[in-house]
């Protein structure tokens, strides 16, 4: 079974994230890493592979040179190989551009199941997996907090999707696109052996030519959306902070009353 | 006047509040035409008309409930095609629920349009609707627009007031034919979420949340009592949810619900960036934490450094006393 995991390289959320002058993500000032939510996707891929008779896990990213770090992390967790789509013309791609490239790269790699995270920790749109299913013309089995694959490459994927108003049990035939939530199960830590082994695992680089995509279909200029401005939110004005010396609850009630909440 | 297609989120005909907010925003851009799908769709018309829908397109079919997302995309696409053939369609608006975003995104691919998700405000602009988004855990505010195709925009709950604006709301049946992908993902079982009787987290005017400091499932009764004294929804940090003290459906933050109430009260929550991502845009923020250095205090309008087991019950009692 061929499992492809989409992983994104993102700026560390605990750093001081900013926009660059062209209103794309500033990648200079903050360290990047494998989006934590994609670790859950890698974990489920590895578990599905362990259950299957024969399986290969490929991790795939679209991103700049440094995005290799995200691939190495996933390889050290236990993925078998990696594909990196890297091209200067990709800078500033929006979700339509990114998904076009990912879909082509997935087809080029070959797949029985594609696994993604529930959302990136930077763009946080949470729509890319559904878009991939649309582009690839296969079922979407998304936002699963529990996932199971049975019957090999021609088998089925089932899972639980916890929605706003109901919890649903889903079922689809492979090939399919799956996304998993952070409720799907703790992601494993890379072992020392895993980290050493990752250094020898193959990372294949592809550019737009390799995928038959024209430079003017992607990137900032060709994006389907345009950001006109990005402004830092003004810091909240310093509030009142009191120490409880027995009357903290009452004083808080006074504040709430003064704001007309009571 | 241009028409704005509005996707209706409803449960068996009961329209959810975010859709009514969308109608307020849609009226800034043109005449709202609502699309309601599935069981009870026609029953939404009166409410939608009261809030400004000039037309209500409805479709009922078993596929909407039996299969995931795609049948609804087929239907929304049919509505899109009907309106754009008449040459009057200016935008498609969808509530930013998990399902709403997926429907919107697949429609955008099919019609060759760009998509903006999680807008928190919308205005008419010279080159189409301008969406305000909140980025990087609400530390930035961006303004964006769709530059290709008919703008598809999803809007977060609590982004606009619900306003009555009576309109015709003429009900029309939408003809839908389902494509090959529609039946790809079967919903084999569905368990509705049990109602707690408290307001819906994303829609509530007041949210009272507890974190690791609450220290046990049984202690959440303290948080619930405060919530009930204020008519509030209950939220929880991921630490409290992961410990099994409160259901995941109540988690506030990046991977939980994002809330933007008039008042947010955090007790025993440190204020990690991922939690802040889900509550930073609350109008008034209050925290109770025994650690004066907790990052949540950087956000608060009013903070109490103290033990929540003393402060919260006293607050609840005082609120009840004041309410008589
Ligand atoms: C603050 C901000 C706001 C944005 N808003 C918009 C917008 O409104 N409209 C728009 O078109 N674009 C937007 N973008 C750009 C968009 O985020 C990226 O083009 C993008 O990679 C896809 O969206 P996402 O990261 O939000 O993905 P999500 O849909 O949140 O990601 C889900 C999953 O898709 C996979 N994935 C996503 N990106 C990649 C990748 N590059 N490589 C491999 N796997 C990947 C991962 O498995 C991830 O967990 C925004 C970007 C930022 C930083
Ligand atoms: C990818 C990712 C996504 C995440 N998504 C979310 C999310 O959606 N939501 C979320 O909340 N977190 C999320 N997290 C986790 C987040 O990073 C924090 O770990 C989490 O928010 C901490 O929860 P907490 O504040 O309850 O616990 P802690 O950080 O442990 O804080 C507990 C606080 O309680 C105080 N306290 C203890 N006892 C008392 C007492 N008796 N009285 C008063 N105060 C007391 C302590 O001083 C402390 O400040 C995510 C993390 C990652 C990596």
Distance between the termini of chain A: 60 Å
Total strand count of chain B, please? 17
Query: What is the fold-level CATH name, i.e. the topology of the largest domain in chain B?
Result: Rossmann fold
Output the structural class of chain A: alpha/beta
What is the highest CATH level, the class of chain A? Answer: Alpha Beta
Give the helix level of chain B as a range of percent: 25-40%
- With helices defined by DSSP (H or I, 4 residues minimum), what is the helix count of chain A? 8
Note the gap between the termini of chain B: 52 Å
How large is the radius of gyration of chain B?
21 Å
Largest interface: A-B, 83 and 90 residues
Beta-strand segment tally of chain A: 13
Helix vs. strand class of chain B: alpha/beta
- The helix-strand sequence of chain A is EEEHEHEHEHEEEEHEHHEEH
Structure characterization notes:
The complex is a heterodimer of chains A (262) and B (324). Chain A has 262 residues and is of the alpha/beta class. Chain A contains eight helices and 13 strands. Chain A has one domain: HUPs (Rossmann fold). In chain A, the strands form two sheets. In chain A, strands 9-8-7-10-6-1-4-5-11 form a nine-stranded mixed beta sheet, with helices on both faces. Chain A has a two-stranded antiparallel ribbon with strand order 2-3. In chain A, α2 crosses α5 and α3 crosses α4 (128-136). With 324 residues, chain B is of the alpha/beta class. Chain B has two domains: 3-173, HUPs (Rossmann fold, 3-Layer(aba) Sandwich), CATH 3.40.50.620; 206-323, Rossmann fold, CATH 3.40.50.1220. Chain B has nine helices and 17 strands. Chain B has helices at residues 17-29, 45-50, 63-66, 70-85, 98-111, 220-230, 238-242, 273-276, 308-323, and strands spanning 3-7, 10-11, 14-15, 31-37, 55-59, 89-95, 115-123, 130-135, 140-146, 152-155, 170-173, 186-192, 206-210, 233-236, 263-267, 284-289, 302-305. In chain B, strands 9-8-7-10-6-1-4-5-11 form a nine-stranded mixed beta sheet. Chain B has a five-stranded parallel beta sheet with strand order 14-13-15-16-17. The model of chain B has no long low-confidence stretch (mean pLDDT 97). Chains A and B meet through α3, α4, β7, β8 and β9 of A and α5, β7, β8, β9 and β12 of B. β13 of chain A pairs parallel with β17 (302-305) of chain B, so a sheet runs across the interface. The structure holds flavin-adenine dinucleotide (2 copies).
């Amino acid at each position: 079974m061929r499992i492809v995991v989409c992983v994104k390289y993102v700026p560390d959320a605990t750093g001081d994230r900013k926009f660059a002058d062209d209103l794309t993500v500033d990648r200079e000032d903050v360290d990047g890493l494998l989006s934590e939510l994609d670790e859950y996707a890698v974990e489920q891929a590895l578990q599905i592979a362990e259950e299957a008779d024969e399986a290969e896990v490929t991790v795939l990213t679209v991103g700049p040179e440094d995005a290799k770090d995200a691939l190495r992390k996933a390889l050290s967790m236990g993925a078998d190989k990696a594909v990196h789509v890297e091209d200067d013309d990709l800078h500033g791609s929006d979700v339509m551009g990114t998904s076009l490239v990912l879909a082509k790269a997935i087809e080029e790699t070959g797949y029985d199941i594609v696994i993604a995270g529930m959302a990136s920790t930077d763009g946080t749109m949470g729509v890319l997996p559904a878009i991939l299913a649309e582009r690839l013309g296969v079922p979407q089995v998304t936002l699963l907090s529990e996932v199971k694959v049975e019957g090999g490459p021609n088998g089925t994927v089932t899972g639980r999707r916890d929605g706003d108003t109901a919890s649903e049990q889903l079922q689809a035939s492979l090939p399919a696109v799956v996304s998993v939530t952070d409720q799907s199960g703790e992601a494993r830590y890379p072992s020392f052996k895993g980290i050493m082994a990752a250094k020898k695992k193959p990372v294949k680089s592809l550019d737009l030519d390799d995928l038959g995509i024209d430079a003017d279909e992607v990137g900032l200029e060709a994006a389907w959306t345009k950001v006109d401005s990005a402004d830092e939110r003004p810091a909240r004005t310093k509030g009142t902070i009191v120490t409880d010396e027995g009357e903290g609850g009452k004083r808080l009630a006074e504040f709430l009353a003064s704001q007309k909440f009571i | 006047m241009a028409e704005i297609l509005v996707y209706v989120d409803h449960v068996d005909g009961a329209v959810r509040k975010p859709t009514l907010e969308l109608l307020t925003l849609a009226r800034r851009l043109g005449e709202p035409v609502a699309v309601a799908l599935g069981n009870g769709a026609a029953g939404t018309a009166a409410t939608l008309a009261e809030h400004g829908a000039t037309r209500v397109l409805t479709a009922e079919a078993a596929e909407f409930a039996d299969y995931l997302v795609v049948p609804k995309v087929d239907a929304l696409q049919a509505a899109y095609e009907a309106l754009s053939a008449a040459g009057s369609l200016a935008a498609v608006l969808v509530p930013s629920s998990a399902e709403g975003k997926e429907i919107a995104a697949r429609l955008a691919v099919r019609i060759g349009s760009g998509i903006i998700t999680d807008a928190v405000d919308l205005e008419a602009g010279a080159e189409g609707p301008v969406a305000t988004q909140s980025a990087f855990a609400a530390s930035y505010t961006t303004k964006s627009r769709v530059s290709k195709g008919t703008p598809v925009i999803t809007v977060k709950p609590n982004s606009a007031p619900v306003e009555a604006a009576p309109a015709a709301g003429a009900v029309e049946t939408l003809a839908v034919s389902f494509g090959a992908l529609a039946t790809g993902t079967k919903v084999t079982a569905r368990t509705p979420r049990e109602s707690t009787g408290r307001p819906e987290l994303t829609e509530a005017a007041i949210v009272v949340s507890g974190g690791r400091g609450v220290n046990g499932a049984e202690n959440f009764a303290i948080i619930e009592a405060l919530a009930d004294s204020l008519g509030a929804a209950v939220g929880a940090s991921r630490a409290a949810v992961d410990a099994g003290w409160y259901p995941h459906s109540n988690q506030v933050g990046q991977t939980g619900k994002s809330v933007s109430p008039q008042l947010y009260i955090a007790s025993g929550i440190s204020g990690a960036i991922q939690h802040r991502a889900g509550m930073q845009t609350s109008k008034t923020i209050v925290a109770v934490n025994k650690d004066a250095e907790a990052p949540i205090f950087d956000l608060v309008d009013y903070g109490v450094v103290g033990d929540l087991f003393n402060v919260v019950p006293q607050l609840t009692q005082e609120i009840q006393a004041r309410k008589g």
